[in-house]
Prior knowledge:
Layout: E1 7-11, E2 14-18, E3 23-29, H1 48-56, E4 58-64, H2 70-79, H3 83-86, E5 105-106, H4 121-127, E6 131-136, E7 163-165, H5 196-206, E8 213-218, H6 231-240, H7 248-274, E9 281-287, H8 310-313, E10 314-320, E11 329-331, E12 335-336, H9 340-347, H10 362-366, E13 376-381, H11 389-393, E14 411-416, E15 419-424, E16 429-434, H12 450-466, E17 473-474
Amino acid sequence: MRCPCVFVLFLLASTVVAAEPPNLLFILADDLSWSDPGCYGNEIFETPRLDQLAAEGMRFTQAYAAAPICSASRAATLTGKTPARLGFEFVVKPEAGYQEVEAPLRAPPYTLDLPLEEITIAELLSETGYETAFFGKWHLNQHYQRYLGWSPTHGPKAQGFEVAGEDFGSHPYSYWSEKEKRTFRELPQNEFVKDGLTERAVNFIRQDHDRPFFLMVSHFYVHDPIHTQVKWLHDHYQKKIPADHPRREVLAHYGAMVTALDHYIGQLLDALDASGLRENTLVIFTSDNGGHPNYAGNAPLRGSKWNLYEGGIRVPMIVRWPATIPGGTTTETPVASYDLFPTFAALAGLPEPEGLDGIPFAGTLANPDTPAGSRSLFWHFPYYHPEGRKFDAAPDPIGIDDGITSRTRPQSAIRKGEWKLIHFHEEDRDELYRIDKDLSEEHDLSSEEEGTRALLRGELFDYLKQVEARLPTRNE
C-alpha cells in the first residue's frame, strides 16, 4: 500500500515514525458483556481469537461504552460526543413519539436520526484521504422499510462511509421470521455457518488499497434473539454448563453465539495476515454496551444494559498494532468509547478536533501505565426500561447475574478517579461507590462521604447544564 504522506505520531515522550498512517479496523460487538470473553476471566465461554488478540496487543480493564444502550452508544462513538451533548440517549424508533410508561417522569421525545450536521470519524478520515467502509448494524436512523433498515438519507453512506453493505450475516435476525429455520444444522465439528457480513468485510480487506482504510465491522452478535443453528457448538456448551443451572439451555445458545462472534473476528484477522496488512493495521475491538441480564449475567458487575451500574457500561476493549503496541499488555486507564474519535484522528496524524467530549488515548497505547489524571467521565440516560406494560411487570431491584431484566429509571452518572456517582432523577437521589474497592457496587457511600457526593453531584449537573442535556420532566 502506498501513501504520499509521511506519518508522524507523538505518543507521550516517544516518537513513532512510520512511512504511512495505519489502517484502522474497528470491530464493534452488540451487547457483549465485559465478562464474556475468556481473556476477561470467563471460564465457560470460549473466545480463542479474542484471547489471542489480547495476547498480541493491549487489553483495557476499565473501558466504558458511552451509553448503556445501542443507538446512543454508537452515535457517541462515531462523533466523539456524549449522548447528553448529542441529545441522542435512547434507541431509534419507527416513528416520533414518547415512551408509553406510567411513571412520575416523562422521558424526552425519541431521537430518530443522527443529525447530518454532526461530523463522524468516517467523514473526518475521508477528508484526509482514508478509504472508509462500513458493514453490519447501523441503528442510527429511523427504521427504514424494515426493522434496522438503513435510511438512504441518514445511513452510513450519508455519514462518511464510501463503501457500505447492509447484511444481517448469520445472526438470528437473518432467519427469525421463518420459524422452520429456528432449528439446528448438522455441520461438521468445528465448522460454522457462513456469515455474509464478515465475508463482505473480508472481501474489502483483500482488495488492493492505494490509500489507508478505516473499516468498521459492526456485528449483530450477541444481541437477542439468542439462538444458534450450530448443533455441535450448542451441545458442547450444554455439556459444560452445570445441569442444575436455571438458564442452562439459553446459555448453551448464548455461549455458541459468543464463540461464533469470536470465529468471525478471527476471519477478519486472518484476512489481514493473508493480505500482508497485519503490521500496520490498528485493530480495536469493543462492545456497544453491557450485556443483556437474561443471558450475559455480567458478574461480578452489577446491573446490565439499560442502566448505569458497571454491568451496563463497562465493556471489553482490545487494541492491537504490532508496529507499536507490545503484546500481552494490560492497562487500567479508564477510557470511554467517545474517546475513539479523537484517538483515530491522532493516529491519522490529524490535530485534535475541537468541541468533543472524548480525548485521545494514543499515549496509553505507548505506555499502559498512563495516569488517568483528574478526568471525569459522564453518562446520561433519561429514559425508562422496559417500555410499556413490561415496565409494570419488571421487578425493582437491580442485581448481579440474576437473569432478570429489572426496572431502569431515568439516571445520570459521573466517574472521577475511583469514585462513581449515579443520580436518580425520579427521587433526586444519589448513590456513591468507590469502584476500586467495590466493583460490584454493593456499598452505597453517599451518606458516609457527603463531601465527595456533593462535589460529584455538582460537577455532574454543571456538565448536564453546559451541554444543554435533555432532562426528564414531571408528569402532570
